[in-house]
Structures are given as structure tokens and as C-alpha cells.
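Hello K.,

You asked for the raw outputs rather than the summary table, so here they are, unedited. I folded two proteins back to back in the same session to keep the settings identical. This is the first:
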Amino acid sequence: MKQKLNPFIIAFILFTIICHAGDLRAQSNKVIIGYVGGFRGLINTAPIQAKKLTHINYAFVDIKDNRAWLHREATDTVNFRNLILLKKQNPALKILISIGGWTWSGKFSDAVLTDTSRQRFVASAVAIVKRFDLDGIDIDWEYPARPGDKGNIYRPEDKHNYTLLFKELRSQLDSLQQQTNKKYLVTTAVGGFKSFVDNTEMGEAQQYLNYINLMTYDYSGGKIASHHTLLYSSKAYKSDNNADAAVSLFEAAGVPANKLVMGIGFYGKSSILVNGAKGLGDSVATYSHGVGFAMIKDSILKSPGFIAHRDRHAKADYIYNAGTRQFITYDDEWSVKKKCKYVKRKKLAGAMFWEYNDDLKGYLLDVIDRVLVD
């Protein structure tokens, strides 16, 4: 004979489970930062799981005439409004503007070259934060004192001006706090490789920063089929670039572990290899467009000829189709779990990802949330 549970007891149990989950989230001190792309136009915020994020970095704000500039103000304005509405789901969620990015970094060097230009540039960025009631500013300068995208302006003075930029941001946002009684964040996205550290003063700059987001992806792009995002070095080819090496570089430069945020790629990078190639470590013939993880998982991996491979030494995955010679390097649930466990073991600040649109079903965010919040 089966005994029926009192519905009030069932309701109490469910309420307890929900509250416990909320307590775990509140107790977790790890950040989960998602870059959300407004550069395409209007953002559909409906799929965004706000409760699984601590910060959203709005990508991107452009630079024009040495000022922070809303390149698409009509859609930017709507996007800001809709992103702020997500705070109804998660009142602790922070919304920041991210200035620059790969395509729009070319004018940083001029904008921060002198005390006057730097002050005016920062004032224009702070004005955007104030106007839309946002929570801070993220700087994605690719890259200070070295080339980034073709045609970008860069100069040796960038190395120190990069530090002065954060000092000025911190000063002006602290002044705004006196008006609003609201704390504001200053963060940055940084290249996860040695030449970035060599051309900046991260030990000095970090004192003005809340978080430093390590772009530990996009490592591939040479003549060898390699991982674009990996936790450790691979035995299949020689390279100094990986997430663990990046963490060590920034810590050695004077950045505390609790300000470092592990970068995760929500997309794969695709290439066609040369005739006779078997996969990782072989030669690349041409590169093609990247592809989001949701498409990799739901479509490509189910297509004939594609075989998934796991590099257990690098803690990274790739797929290869011997017939078409297509090679795709990417993060999946397994590699993301490894990275998040590393974040906890190394006592880093948390994880960030580029970008939300590449995994709208939340396959990878679910893993980040589950591992970092537990």
C-alpha cells in the first residue's frame, strides 16, 4: 500500500530546495561574466539566464574623436534598457559597458595619449554609465603598445598610458559614486600571452581594477592546426600559450589571483587542413569562419564524417572530418568543467566567456554555474 505525501510537506520540501540553491549562489564568491554582443544591433534578452550570471559586459562601445561613442545609439539605448530589466530576475546582476574590442581598439592610443585627452575620454565613458544607470566600465584594448587589427595606432607610450587610463577611470567613477551612492566597477579584458604582459604594467594597473578578464582563447591562427582555447600545453605541437601559462604570467607581473578571471570560448574556430592531414598538429591550408558551440553540439557533431577528439593533456577538444579536411577547435562541457575546477583550485575570481550568442541554449553556462556555485 502506498502512502500519499501531504501536499503541504511537498511544498515545504520544494521551498527548502529552492532556498538552499539560492544560499549556495549567495555564498559563492566566484564571478560569472558574460559578454553580450550589441554590435549586431538589437539583443534578444529572452534566452539570457540572468540568475546564472554576476556580470554582463555589453560589447562594444566605440571610440570617435577621442571620446567613448555609441556606434549604434538607437539600438544601444534599447539594449541597455532591456539588459537592466534582467535585474528583476537577478537584483545582484551588474551591467557594464565594454569599450573597444578587436575591431574598435584602433583609437585607444590617441584617446589616452595626454592627461587632457585621457580625462575627456574617461569623462565621456562615465557619462554613458551615468546616463543609462549602468554599473561600470570594461576596457578591451587589443592591444597597448603592439599591433592588433590592421591599421590600429599604437605607440610605446601606451604601456604607461594604459595604467593611467585605469587610474583616471577609478577616480572619475569614485567621484560619480559620491553623487549616486553606488559603487562602480572597473575591469579589463587582456591578452593571455607574454607580449601583452611585457607591454603593460599589470602590477600597477591592477590596483585600480576589480577584475582582469583573461582572453584565454583565440590562441590558434598560425600554420599548424592547434587548439584555440586550452588549459595546458599540448604534446601534439609546441606552443607557450595556454590558460595556465597566462595565469602564471599575470601573477608573476603582480596581479593577485583573486582578480584574475578565466576566459572561456563559447565558439569554435574552423580551418581546412592540407591534403593527407590527420588533425591536430598538422598543417593548415585555409581558415574559415568560427562557429558557436550550440551549432557544434546540435548539428556538426551529428553530421557524417565528423569525429570528436579529446586532448587529455591540454584539457581541450577538437573535431576533424577526414573527408572534407575540416578541423574545428572548441571548448565543450568537459573542458569547461576542467577550467572551472582549475579556477576553484587556484582561487581565481571566476570565469568569463565570449560570447552569449554562441550558446543560447546554455550548455556551457550550465556547467560554469554548476561547478563554480557548488
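The second followed immediately with the same parameters:
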Amino acid sequence: MAKDAKKVTMDELLAEAGDSLKQVSTGDTITGEVLSVKKHEILIDLGPRGVGLVPRREASFARNLEIGAEVTASIVDAEMENGYVLLSLRKAVKDKGWDEILAKLEAGEIVEVAPFDANRGGLLVEYEGIRGFLPVSQLSAEHYPRVGSADKDEILQRLNSLVGKNIKVRILDANKKDNKLIFSEKEAVKDGLAARFAELAVGDTVKGVVTGVVDFGVFVNVDGIEGLIHISEISWERVNNPSDYVKIGETVEAKIIAIDKERLSLSMKQLVEDPWLSEVSELKKGSKVEGTVTRITPFGAFVQISPAVEALVHVSELGDSNETDPEKIFTLNERKAFKVLGVDKEGRKISLTVAK
């Protein structure tokens, strides 16, 4: 006769089930298997704890889920009227996301984000289910919207052009309690930039893409390094508006005239011969010249005597007249005869007197 089956008490069954039958509460994290994915709901098999329901409003957190996949969720309501356990994937995703983010911040890892929106302050991004911010000041030379401070619409337009594009960044600051997450593209590229800086030297000729044109000069992206061509280094002639010489997106060639930790100082004009030197080569003290009055100031008048050469008639050299007000002696754009008083090639100065 077979031995009687061993009797199992309810206490033993509960003990054997262990944690699987422990009461769950709002805020607990639970793991289950996806039963179905529909537009209006996702059902999760929670084993002995029943079936969990993820509402439609969180569908975006489950768009890649497949039936049979294991998921972790947070309990919003342990027992709904229909018997389901109301779950939130959002909170569980965020909790897991913060863990990932803090680990990557500590490790200094480079990650990739795709901005979903922009404002004048920077780009809005989402990473590991957490929304964060990539400030304008933390964009690399390639993406920084270098435009005039008054061109706010253009700044926003150029930032909007980055929405949806993958950008490599480092996490600059992360605080779960304050829900603060800041990214930096500058930090992600700085290691590579250090190596590129080491390869460059003053006097080198480089090519770059114009990223911004402002009143005081031109910003250029030189293989990820930002360069500035000051307005005085654009051309040998007087430059009033840098946008007359270059356009955003144009590739230009320039000479490196200085290097600091973050930027190159560049010159376009130093790649071509200085026309001033050739145009003054024939001038000497006593030479007779003709010129056009271009500016009148309290201390004298400036005269254009050739395309690249502007000279000064000091107030003390206005001629035999007792009149000492340059505005009463000269008229803008009038052409007059002058005599050269001196040529200072090192100082690039020509002084004139009114011809008698």
C-alpha cells in the first residue's frame, strides 16, 4: 500500500510561496510579463498577484514592448474595482533612468541625445525617460548659434534646426530630488579638441565653415574648434560690415595668429599681400597727391588717396586760412590736392597738408 501523501498545511504553502504572496502597496516596484499591448491599455501578468494594467496615457513608455517581455512597473493602485493592479511604467522607467544617469555622470561617459524641442536658452532633450536641458552655452563650436545679440529669432531658428538630430553629450549635472538634468556638448568634444589644438600652431593656414557673422567679426568652425576672425583681420581695406565679405555656411581660409585654450584667433587678410605697402611705395615727403575726403573730425580730415591708403590732414595743416574748423574747410566726398608731409610704414600712417 502506498504511503499516505504528506499533508501540507496552508502555513507551509504560504512559507513556500515566500515573497510572491506578500501584500503589495502603492509605490512598490513590481516585475511582470507582458500579456497584451493595445492602444488603450497594456496588461501585465503579475503571477500570484494577479494582472496589472498600464493605462493608455503611458503608451509612449511601452511603444517598444512585446508580448512575453519582462517589465518593471510601479504600483499606483494595489486593487482596482475591476480586480486589476493599476501600474505605472513612467515612474519605474524614471527611477531606473535616474540610476543610469547618475552612474554615467560619475563615470563621465559620453551619451547621445536627440532634442525634441528648443527655446532661445537651449535644447530640450529626453534621456532614459528623464527630461533634461542642453543650454546654448554648452553647445560645441559646430552647433553654437553665433549671431548678433539682437537676432533672437535667428538664434531660435538655428536651434530648431538641431531638433531631432543626434548630438553626443556628457551629463554636466544631475539631481533626482530637484528633477534637474543638464547636458554639455562642449564636455563631450573637449578631449578630441585638446588633441586637435596640439596639432595647430600660430602661422598655420586652416579652412573652416562660417558659423556666425556679428558686428565685431566672423566665427568659424575649424574641425570642431571655434575660431574668430576679428573685423580688423577680414580685409586690408576698411570693413564696416563683415556680412559684406562672408556668409554663414561658407568655407573660408585663414591664418592662425593666436591660440588660447578655447579659441583660435584667425586672419583672412594676412593670407594676401598688403596692398597698402605697394601703394605707398612711390610716396615720399613732398609728393603731390589727390584724394577724396572720407571723414571729418574735430582734429582733422581723413583722405582716401588710393584704394588701400587713407591719410590724415591734421587740423594744424589746413592751409593759409585762419579757419581751424575742419568742417568749414572740407566737404565729405570732395576731391582736393594735397602734399605728403610724412610716410610711416611701420605705423601705417600717412600725414598730409593742404597743397598751396
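The longest helix spans residues 89-107.

Happy to rerun anything if the numbers look odd on your end.

Regards,
P.
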